[in-house]
């Protein structure tokens, strides 16, 4: 039990720190694309510490407070189910549907908290977020079906181990199609352009985030950092072979090497999303829904059909 608790603590601390570094990388890369210098990579950590140190005397009731804790808790639980190289707490029980569900439901907690504030901008943002969440379900479902059909299992860990023998998922055409569709879905899960309709900074004043400040916003920053880590980790595991390394005689060296391999893959996934966000303008909500129900759905459905043959 002590070993398991220490592993869980390590995963939580590592995911939070790396997630904050990912937030810093996004800001720096976006700034360079826009020909700006950008803040230091550790700026999100400083921002979060400042927010958590502030006193807050304003609350909008139980749901407003509980929704944030619900989002943070669900995101932490998702990380525990995703294989992290040779480190894992609940990886044996982490199937595709469960992890996908846990990565999506934090948005519901944030939406409930935002709507309980009574702010009209928060309500509009929450409606847009729920519509976006609905729009991504179809291509996301087909992508998961394609993986399950091809490997004959829903277990994320078994899919990772199968890739050590059969090669990365993206090396197989049906799963390459599923990966493309999932990556497009990932853009909305990140809340990045062109699918950042729910926050739309210049339009609805950050939408659901408009009423959050102080410790509430600090906790949301932590949740976002862990979510970035979890979503890139999940994609790296199911499509890019995970982080299994057996080249060294020492298990410690294999573990460290596995984390480095995973980190490189996660950064690659993150940079693709960052480049897309910096280049493409924001969609309207109807454009986003039509887009997801068209091209990603067609691509993922074709991948699922080919994977079942």
Draw up the topology in text.
Elements (H helix, E strand, L loop, with lengths): L1 H32 L9 H11 L8 H20 L14 H21 L3 H16 L1 H15 L4 H11 L6 H18 L10 H4 L9 H26 L11 H29 L5 H8 L2 H14 L1
Helix pairs in contact: 1-10, 1-11, 2-10, 3-4, 3-10, 4-5, 5-12, 6-8, 6-13, 7-10, 8-10, 8-11, 8-13, 10-11
Please give a structural write-up:
The chain is an all-alpha fold and 309 residues long. The chain contains 13 helices and no strands. The mean pLDDT is 90.
Strand content: under 5%
Count up the helices.
13
Mind summarizing the main beta sheet? none
Mean pLDDT: 90
Q: Based on helices, strands and strand pairing, what is the structural class?
A: mainly alpha
Morphology call: globular
Tell me which oligomeric state these chains represent: single chain
What level of helicity do the residues show?
over 70%
* Number of beta strands: 0
Rg, nearest Å:
19 Å
* Poorly predicted residue ranges: none
| First-residue to last-residue Cα separation | 44 Å
Q: Secondary-structure element sequence?
A: HHHHHHHHHHHHH
Main location: membrane
GO molecular function: oxidoreductase activity
Membrane topology: Multi-pass membrane protein
Organism: Thermococcus waiotapuensis
């Amino acid at each position: 039990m002590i070993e398991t608790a220490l592993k869980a603590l390590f995963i939580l601390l590592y995911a939070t720190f790396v997630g904050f570094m990912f937030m810093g990388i996004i800001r720096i890369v976006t700034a360079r694309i826009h020909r700006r210098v950008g803040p230091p990579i550790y700026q999100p950590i400083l921002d979060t510490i400042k927010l958590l140190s502030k006193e807050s005397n304003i609350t909008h009731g139980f749901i407003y407070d509980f929704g944030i804790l619900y989002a943070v808790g669900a995101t932490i639980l998702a990380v525990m189910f995703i294989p992290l190289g040779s480190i894992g707490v609940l990886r044996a029980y982490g199937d595709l549907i469960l992890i996908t569900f846990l990565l999506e439901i934090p948005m519901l907690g944030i939406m409930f908290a935002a709507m309980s504030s009574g702010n009209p901008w928060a309500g509009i943002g929450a409606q847009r977020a729920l519509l976006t969440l609905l729009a991504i379900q179809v291509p996301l479902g087909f992508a998961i079906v394609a993986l399950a059909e091809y490997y004959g299992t829903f277990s994320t860990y078994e899919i990772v181990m199968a890739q050590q023998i059969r090669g990365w998922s993206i090396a197989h055409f049906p799963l390459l199609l599923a990966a493309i569709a999932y990556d497009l879905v990932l853009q909305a899960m990140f809340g990045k352009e062109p699918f950042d309709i729910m926050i739309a900074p210049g339009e609805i004043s950050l939408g659901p985030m408009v009423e959050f400040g102080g410790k509430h916003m600090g906790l949301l920053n932590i949740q976002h950092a862990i979510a970035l880590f979890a979503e890139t980790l999940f994609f790296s595991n199911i499509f890019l072979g995970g982080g299994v390394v057996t080249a060294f005689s020492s298990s410690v060296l294999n573990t460290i090497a596995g984390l480095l391999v995973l980190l490189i893959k996660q950064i690659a996934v993150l940079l693709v999303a960052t480049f897309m966000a910096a280049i493409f303008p924001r969609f309207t909500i109807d454009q986003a829904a039509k887009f997801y129900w068209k091209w990603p759905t067609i691509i993922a459905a074709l991948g699922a059909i080919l994977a079942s043959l």
